[in-house]
Structure formats: C-alpha cells, structure tokens
Structure to design on (163 residues):
C-alpha cells in the first residue's frame, strides 16, 4: 500500500470536490482496505495534482485491476492549476496521466469506467493498456432556437433540370 495513507490525508481536504466513489471510506466499504491502493502524481512543489485509486482482485486465477462492486464510475481526479488556458490544459493532463499510468500495477487486465469528464484517454493507448471502451462518449450540444439554422435553407439543392 504505497500511497494509500497519502491518498487518505489528501482526500480529507477535498471532501467538497472529490466524487463519492473516490473517497477512502467508500473504497474501504466496497473493496476492503487491503485490496485497493492509489497512484498519485506530484508537481514540482511535491503537491498532489492527480490521483487514480484502483482495486485489485483475483478472478479465475488471474490478477485483475478493475471496478469494485456497486461502483459505477471510478478513475482519475485532477487538480488543475488556477487560470489555466485550454491548450496548456491538454499538456497538463498528458503529463499527469503519464505519471499515474506508470504507477499502475502490471496486471494482464485493466478495467476502469472513468467519469465522463475525462476527455483525454490517449496515454492509455500509448502504454499498450487494453482500453475496454467502458468510457461513454457523451456529446453535450447547446440547444438552438432553430434546430438546423439558416445555412441549410440557403444551400441550393441538386440541379435535376432536363436538357
């Protein structure tokens, strides 16, 4: 349990922003305290900027890192710097995810259902981790007063005139 104690003390300060499925008391209840651990990413000041709790169990003789019972989502919690721009946000996510993925235990199978807020899963592909496709793809569309807009009406249709 390399970072479980550090994760407990870090999450005590994050009670308002940490999802319920990532809280230590939830993980103790559904995983048992001996079967879960956390990967932590640190910045230059040695402050925690990212966390990835994970659950390990044995299924049919194979060690698996997967989802605990009664937990619909788990995954990564990131602490973004204040006032960060969008283009530097992607660089931040990539560096933090690389740190977290490098700490994951080597198991033949990884199953995680990430929160829909995670939009950048490319580092998982780069590490040759089997992506199970459990992350839902959610499109958030703004509602418009005219569903198709005026540009569809302005386009001429195909010209089928007889010659």
């Amino acid at each position: 349990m390399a970072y479980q104690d550090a994760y407990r003390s870090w999450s005590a300060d994050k009670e308002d922003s940490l999802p319920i499925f990532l809280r230590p008391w939830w993980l103790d209840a559904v995983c048992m305290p001996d079967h879960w651990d956390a990967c932590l990413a640190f910045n230059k000041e040695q402050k925690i900027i990212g966390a990835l709790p994970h659950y390990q169990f044995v299924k049919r003789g194979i060690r698996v890192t997967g989802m605990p019972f009664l937990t619909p989502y788990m995954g990564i919690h990131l602490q973004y710097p204040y006032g960060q721009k969008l283009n530097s946000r992607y660089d931040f996510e990539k560096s933090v995810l690389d740190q977290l993925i490098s700490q994951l235990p080597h198991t033949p199978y990884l199953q995680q259902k990430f929160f829909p807020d995670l939009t950048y899963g490319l580092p998982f592909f780069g590490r040759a981790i089997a992506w199970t496709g459990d992350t839902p793809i959610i499109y958030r569309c703004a509602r418009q007063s005219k569903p198709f807009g005026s540009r569809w009406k302005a386009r001429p249709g195909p010209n089928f005139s007889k010659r």
In short: The helical segments are 4-12, 24-31, 86-103, 122-126, 151-154. Residues 14 and 72 are 21 Å apart (CA to CA).
